[in-house]
Write a structure and sequence with these properties.
Number of domains of chain A: 2
CATH topology of the largest domain in chain A: Glutathione S-transferase Yfyf (Class Pi), Chain A, domain 2
CATH class of the largest domain in chain A: Mainly Alpha
Distance between the termini of chain A: 34 Å
Oligomer: homodimer
CATH architecture of the largest domain in chain A: Up-down Bundle
Largest interface: A-B, 49 and 49 residues
Strand order of the largest sheet of chain A: 2-1-3-4
Largest sheet of chain A: 4 strands, mixed
Number of strands of chain A: 4
Structural class of chain A: mainly alpha
Helix content of chain A: 40-55%
Number of helices of chain A: 8
Radius of gyration of chain A: 17 Å
């Protein structure tokens, strides 16, 4: 199967951590995509195979050998967990399934707020600075802070084995460290202690964020 | 269980259609929330029970009697389908599950683009108009158009019985009609023919969008 990625995307990282935890690295062809910084506010040119993989035009996108196209990180993680992972990252049924997916859904809210903050900042650096809204960025930061506070309460219930909830949370903590100047650890000591252990896993070490490849923008010059 | 809603949200509508299709209206307490138009770019005041239900601060949010908190529409639909619907809206395993979830994930991309367009427009009418980005709105419209084109290809494969994919697509078509001046039917005749039949279902009739309740904004005057 083919997975379209960039190395800076935390939504991609959820999928890549899951691939390592399930142990199917050799089954997945990783295809890099490039994103000029104008992605924050404009449609950017897509490579043809990526455009064919997903009409949404976001990463990650998965295309399986039997032609299934999945175009959001949580559905891709569920697919890999069910079809390759024997449900080891989340049970198929029952209360533990919903406990884990409730963690995933809070982590996804946090990840979406981080992406929206990043996109808003790109109006300043790569777009039309007057279109930047400090209010909107603050709204996203406040959502992020509420999610971190909720995850701090939940961290003591995280199991000893990795699951889809922990994987999503780890991707969020990782991008806070990599992309933002956020000082999140002091307010969430239990979460920070959990994360600083979890990040030592081989699946985390193998997927540490790196800068997104860019390419010359065909629409307007990318300033940074 | 308690479901936090507004009558204009298409993400809420996915859940409410599912509730009607499963036949559990009497099991769900519907709690209205209010959203001043500043929601597009500011954190708005939350009622205490809603803040307790979800740190993300978005609707829908579900709180079950045994204390499960789910804070995104797709997870809530999966929960209701599994725990109350005997998987009639999506099988628990197998190829048909992934076919349906691939439709859901494209529809969700479309729904998110619609919400982002709406939020951007609110900068014009309720916020600081210079912060409006026509580029960003166009990016979201182009995503929406790509998703509609993909769904046009998929519509002939929609089954005779409703499923979570069709429900998500119907919510997207419905909000295009209700909220936007989008003329989508001419470019997607197969999808339009399907939707104009599907929208006659009692579950659709019972959940037609209505304007979101607003309240006096404590931060700045809402202009429209």
């Amino acid at each position: 199967m083919k997975l379209f990625v960039t190395p800076a995307s935390s939504f991609v990282r959820k999928v890549r951590i899951s691939i390592f935890e399930i142990g199917i690295e050799s089954e997945v062809e990783i295809i890099q995509t490039r994103w000029p910084h104008t992605w924050g506010f404009q449609t950017v040119p897509f490579r043809a195979d990526f455009a064919e993989a997903t009409p949404v035009g976001r990463i990650p996108a998965l295309v399986t050998d039997d032609g299934i196209h999945l175009t959001d990180s949580s559905t891709i993680c569920e697919y890999l967990n069910a079809e390759y992972g024997d449900y080891r990252l989340c049970p198929a049924v029952g209360a533990e399934r919903w406990r884990i997916l409730s963690v995933v859904s809070i982590a996804n809210g946090l990840l979406e707020a981080q992406v929206a903050r990043r996109a808003e900042k790109l109006r300043l650096s790569a777009g039309n600075p007057i279109e930047y809204s400090a209010d909107f960025e603050r709204k996203m930061l406040e959502r992020q802070q509420r999610c971190y506070a909720a995850l701090e309460e939940m961290a003591p219930s995280f199991g000893a084995a990795p699951d889809l909830g922990q994987i999503a949370v780890a991707a969020a903590c990782g991008i806070s460290d990599f992309r933002f100047a956020d000082v999140w650890r002091p307010d969430t000591p239990q979460l920070a202690a959990w994360y600083d252990r979890f990040r030592e896993r081989p699946s985390m070490r193998a997927t540490e964020p790196q800068e997104t490849p860019t390419e010359p923008d065909r629409v307007m010059p990318a300033a940074s």
